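Closing statement on the inosinic acid sub-project.
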Amino acid sequence: MLSPASVGHLMGGRKVARIVYEPEAIRARVKELGLEITRAYPDGDLLVLGLLKGSFIFLGDLVREIQRPLQVDFIVASSYGDATVSSGNVRLVYDPETLLEGKHILLVEDIIDTGRTLNRLIDLLGSRNPKSLGICALLDKHLADGLKVKPRFLGFDAPKEFLVGYGLDHAEDFRHLPFVASLAE
Ligand code: IMP
Ligand code: MG
């Protein structure tokens, strides 16, 4: 368990409303996801595509729980500034160098909010003729009605609050927290 003092120390004085997922809960769920993914792809080439920056910790933990050959690459889409609401504008900043054609693509996302980022990426990646295109998200706020592809693998149903930690940021802060917390107003 995390002590309030150690949490306060990591947060640099900023208050958390509550810890939503403890490190142990995340670790256990990521392990299960790794097993689910291992079973779901019995054959073919698998490319795990991490959507940066938010997925970096989740991706690092997840791929080590997938027990089959795979490749890792990244994609960078920018949709948020320092705001805590989505602007709806998605910009591709880094395009994967790895060939997508004929491979199972597993797009790894930290959290699904409006789903706009994912919708744009699904079109773009789908046009490169992958064998399949699946989504693995650590968290889903279930606010995205118009999502073109529902996550095939999901860590947790997230509360509709602004969350930080385990890769998720607020203005680039808090990504390093080993837990997921809801930020106090
Ligand atoms: P969407 O396009 O609205 O679904 O936004 C998805 C992206 O916004 C995620 O990949 C995150 O980077 C960011 N985001 C959405 N909700 C949160 C949150 O609660 N905390 C931190 N980042 C978030
Ligand atoms: Mg972000």
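DSSP finds four helices and nine strands in the chain. With this model delivered, the sub-project is considered complete and its resources will be redirected to Aim 3.
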